[in-house]
User: Fold this.
Amino acid sequence: MAGKKIGLKPPAGMRTAVLAQTVLAVLFLPAGAFFAWIAEGEAKPFALFFGLVWTAGCGFLFFRGRSALKALKEGTLALELDFEGEDSPGSRLRELESLRKDRLVSEEEYEKKRAEILEEKW
Assistant:
């Protein structure tokens, strides 16, 4: 059962933290341009590169925060889990044992299927 989504209730204070992230991203955005503007001489190319990276990072934080706030408001937060091993031999044997106890498979069918599962590569 891969890719099962589970709804989450956000922890207390998450909205405040995301809102703070978004506001700080907007406030710090001009700092990158300021550093690039005040740089002189040989430092100018490095300052321009720094300003570009700084601006991209602030933009990422802003848009990521905005989408998180929207998801919080709509209540659409979800966690996608991949349940590997759910089809493991152990779980299949337990399921088979349960079927036998409920008398949904005969003893002969149980022994045959159990042997098949045990012969598979683990």
